[in-house]
Amino acid sequence: MSRAFNFCAGPATLPEAVLKQAQEEMLDWRGTGMSVMEMSHRSDEFVEIAETAEKDLRELAGVSDDYAVLFMQGGASSQFSTIPLNLLGDKTSADYVNTGIWSKKAIAEAKRYADVNVVASAEDNGFTSIPEQSSWRTNPDAAYLHYTPNETIGGLEYDFVPESGDVPLVADLSSTILSRPLDVSKFGLIYAGAQKNIGPSGLVVVFVRKDLLGKARKETPTMMNYQVIADNDSMYNTPATYSWYLAGLVFKWLKAQGGVEAMAEINSRKATKLYDFIDGNDFYANPIDPRFRSWMNVPFTLADDGLNGEFLKGADARGLLNLKGHRSVGGMRASIYNAMPEAGVDALIQYMTEFARERG
Ligand SMILES: Cc1ncc(COP(=O)(O)O)c(C=O)c1O
């Protein structure tokens, strides 16, 4: 069976080379006579796998020793509460920017613990553009400023890193991590669910500046306390070992492609050609302000919603999978993360061209 082009927003397509390597190593990891899935997380072998993955991730993302790199569980959503529990310290208020569904979820959860100040909202423009930072009403006494660099569902992505002064900047990088270079030193904390650009679900990667550790509220569950996780090299309990191993294979693959700079070039090319095609064809539309269009998630609508089912059926038949938009917004969405080859985008454009010609 040949592999399809899978445009799912997450869990998302993984590099074929990584899956093949995992297949080869499945029954016997390097002469140990067992799968990584069956190894003790305390074994020398697994500790080496874990340390190598962290080292490669630090190198790829440019994470200095000023930061702890944590491999946690519970997905990005669990960070929505872990962050306020750990970072509020003796403060009561936190700043949030509302740019779509994922920001809203982060805000709703933070409200359980903090006075949330929504410094700016894209709700007024239907989440199609990012409010200029000059209009944000930030609080210099906030414990942190949280934002969502890429809204996976809306397809809205910042083209700038907000300035937050002395207030630690916190970012949900779930759907854009490692897709282009980023100056990590501007951030207090970065988190990302793994299942888009890193590996299988179940794992969430956190970069936290070390001076922000040790401030967790006393009611913070142990498993959510960054200090505890950092002190125990993310092995306070049994970590998601197989996801961690696969993430490590993805990091090696990324390095072999030329790292995030090379990925940025390819990702920019893939996104540009898809948006150019959509803009140049009357049958398709994307509502996002061109300045803030996501490189990773490209939502689009057909001129006639009544043709959605037929479009998806035809796409499936060609091995172009999971193009249905999120249930909250409808339409279509093509997620084109690092592991989506350019040939996948070309095949999608080819299909969209033919569909518009025949049914438009
Ligand atoms: C930007 C963003 N944040 C958070 C999440 C939630 O991630 P998880 O399902 O790992 O909790 C997602 C999932 O798609 C996401 O795209």
Automatic annotation (TrEMBL):
<comment type="pathway">
    <text>Amino-acid biosynthesis; L-serine biosynthesis; L-serine from 3-phospho-D-glycerate: step 2/3.</text>
</comment>
<feature type="binding site">
    <location>
        <position position="195"/>
    </location>
    <ligand>
        <name>pyridoxal 5'-phosphate</name>
    </ligand>
</feature>
<keyword id="KW-0808">Transferase</keyword>
<keyword id="KW-0718">Serine biosynthesis</keyword>
<dbReference type="Pfam" id="PF00266">
    <property type="entry name" value="Aminotran_5"/>
</dbReference>
<keyword id="KW-0028">Amino-acid biosynthesis</keyword>
<feature type="binding site">
    <location>
        <position position="152"/>
    </location>
    <ligand>
        <name>pyridoxal 5'-phosphate</name>
    </ligand>
</feature>
<dbReference type="InterPro" id="IPR000192">
    <property type="entry name" value="Aminotrans_V_dom"/>
</dbReference>
<comment type="function">
    <text>Catalyzes the reversible conversion of 3-phosphohydroxypyruvate to phosphoserine and of 3-hydroxy-2-oxo-4-phosphonooxybutanoate to phosphohydroxythreonine.</text>
</comment>
<feature type="binding site">
    <location>
        <position position="102"/>
    </location>
    <ligand>
        <name>pyridoxal 5'-phosphate</name>
    </ligand>
</feature>
<dbReference type="GO" id="GO:0008615">
    <property type="term" value="P:pyridoxine biosynthetic process"/>
</dbReference>
<dbReference type="InterPro" id="IPR015422">
    <property type="entry name" value="PyrdxlP-dep_Trfase_small"/>
</dbReference>
<protein>
    <recommendedName>
        <fullName>Phosphoserine aminotransferase</fullName>
        <ecNumber>2.6.1.52</ecNumber>
    </recommendedName>
</protein>
<comment type="pathway">
    <text>Cofactor biosynthesis; pyridoxine 5'-phosphate biosynthesis; pyridoxine 5'-phosphate from D-erythrose 4-phosphate: step 3/5.</text>
</comment>
<feature type="binding site">
    <location>
        <position position="42"/>
    </location>
    <ligand>
        <name>L-glutamate</name>
    </ligand>
</feature>
<keyword id="KW-0963">Cytoplasm</keyword>
<dbReference type="InterPro" id="IPR015421">
    <property type="entry name" value="PyrdxlP-dep_Trfase_major"/>
</dbReference>
<feature type="domain" description="Aminotransferase class V">
    <location>
        <begin position="5"/>
        <end position="348"/>
    </location>
</feature>
<feature type="binding site">
    <location>
        <begin position="76"/>
        <end position="77"/>
    </location>
    <ligand>
        <name>pyridoxal 5'-phosphate</name>
    </ligand>
</feature>
<feature type="binding site">
    <location>
        <begin position="237"/>
        <end position="238"/>
    </location>
    <ligand>
        <name>pyridoxal 5'-phosphate</name>
    </ligand>
</feature>
<comment type="subunit">
    <text>Homodimer.</text>
</comment>
<keyword id="KW-0664">Pyridoxine biosynthesis</keyword>
<keyword id="KW-0663">Pyridoxal phosphate</keyword>
<feature type="modified residue" description="N6-(pyridoxal phosphate)lysine">
    <location>
        <position position="196"/>
    </location>
</feature>
<keyword id="KW-0032">Aminotransferase</keyword>
<dbReference type="GO" id="GO:0005737">
    <property type="term" value="C:cytoplasm"/>
</dbReference>
<dbReference type="InterPro" id="IPR022278">
    <property type="entry name" value="Pser_aminoTfrase"/>
</dbReference>
<comment type="similarity">
    <text>Belongs to the class-V pyridoxal-phosphate-dependent aminotransferase family. SerC subfamily.</text>
</comment>
<dbReference type="GO" id="GO:0030170">
    <property type="term" value="F:pyridoxal phosphate binding"/>
</dbReference>
<dbReference type="GO" id="GO:0004648">
    <property type="term" value="F:O-phospho-L-serine:2-oxoglutarate aminotransferase activity"/>
</dbReference>
<feature type="binding site">
    <location>
        <position position="172"/>
    </location>
    <ligand>
        <name>pyridoxal 5'-phosphate</name>
    </ligand>
</feature>
<dbReference type="InterPro" id="IPR015424">
    <property type="entry name" value="PyrdxlP-dep_Trfase"/>
</dbReference>
<dbReference type="GO" id="GO:0006564">
    <property type="term" value="P:L-serine biosynthetic process"/>
</dbReference>
